[in-house]
Amino acid sequence: MTQSKQQCDTLIRNALILTLNPQQDTYARGAIAIKGNTIVGLGDTDDMERQFDATEIVEADDKIAMPGFINTHNHTPLMIVRGMIEDMNFAPAYTKSLPKVHSLTHDQTLALSRLGALEMLRSGCTTVVDFYRHPQALRDAANTVGLRGVIGGRIHDVDMAELANGSHEHKNSVGESMLKETMDLFDTQDAERDVRIRCDLGPHAADTCSKWLLEEVAKLAETYQGNIHTHLAQSRMEVQHVLTRDGMKPHQLFDEVGLLNPRLISAHCVFLDDNDITEVGRSGMNVAHAPHQNARVGNIAPILKLQKAGANITLCTDTRSADMFEAMRLALVSARILDKGKEPKAPEALRWATTNPAKALGLEGVNGCLQVGDKADL
């Protein structure tokens, strides 16, 4: 008796499949059956064709099917500064050379974010952790294009326009405004219940947030139990400012207010000494490694040391590029140069762009690898 076939919407067949699942299964001539937005079958093409009838067949000869990349740190609207910051040895937020980035309107942010989201999709990125001003625009752009997004508003209580002139004056009114913008984003998300978009909390950095503001963020983090997304040890100036102001390193300040934990995603993590690395690693924090951004200004994060200490390493593009393949290549070669060895190998760099970010975001079982029951983010 002939067994009846299951119906699916799409069958991708004859691909080289890299699942990156716990068993590291690969299929030289594989197929993926998709129903709705979920993987319902995965295996050799002949087996899948015996099991499934598909509305649409995607021929994938000479192609690789793999998990979509997860970009763990980006400011999508800041693609506007590309080409203008190539020889700048500082993050755009700290300079007065680019005042326009502080005054983008909602509509400008939306347009730039849509363009940036399309650019990320083109390089295989299916999820982005994004934060900047006008977070509603970031959210709407990801929604329109079809990206999975973890979106947050940029929270700080320093006037960023004044920061560019060297002022670190903290103003409660600025912080309260940023917190309200973030809370409005959470309220919108709760009302619309968009399953692809999630909100997080985005304290900009330890030097642009007072201890009071970080404590307020920590209270919200306890309420919402989501991710916290920040810049950490990005510059010597940041580290020195926090040492002078609070008598401790930036990561120690985050620890004191209750934010240094496995839900924290920290971009850069360049200026850390061996003791800092031990403390950061012990927390189980996630590092958003930006090799392209950091190498352009002559720096690189000690990711192998951080990983050995216990930190979860993930990859991001930040503002200078949207190419996750380039991020993997640069992460691999820069780590080898920094540690003067032959590690990491390519499969590890691939995990930094897929399974590790899924762990950081609590998306294991949703994306990060290809397996039955996961979303078809590929």
Automatic annotation (TrEMBL):
Source species of the chain = Candidatus Paenalcaligenes intestinipullorum
Q: Which InterPro entries match?
A: Amidohydro-rel, Metal-dep_hydrolase_composite, Metal_Hydrolase, MTA/SAH_deaminase
- Give GO terms: molecular function aspect only: hydrolase activity, acting on carbon-nitrogen (but not peptide) bonds
Which segments of the protein form a coiled coil according to its record?
A: none
Q: Which Gene3D superfamilies would you find in this protein's record?
A: Metal-dependent hydrolases (3.20.20.140), Urease, subunit C, domain 1 (2.30.40.10)
Q: Which family does it belong to?
A: Belongs to the metallo-dependent hydrolases superfamily. ATZ/TRZ family.
Residue ranges constituting the Amidohydrolase-related domain according to the UniProt record: 64-378
Q: Which Pfam families does the UniProt entry name for this protein? A: Amidohydro_1
Which of UniProt's keywords are assigned here?
Hydrolase
Please give the SUPFAM superfamilies that the UniProt record associates with this protein: Composite domain of metallo-dependent hydrolases, Metallo-dependent hydrolases
Its name, as the record gives it, is Amidohydrolase family protein
Q: Which domain of life is it from?
A: Bacteria
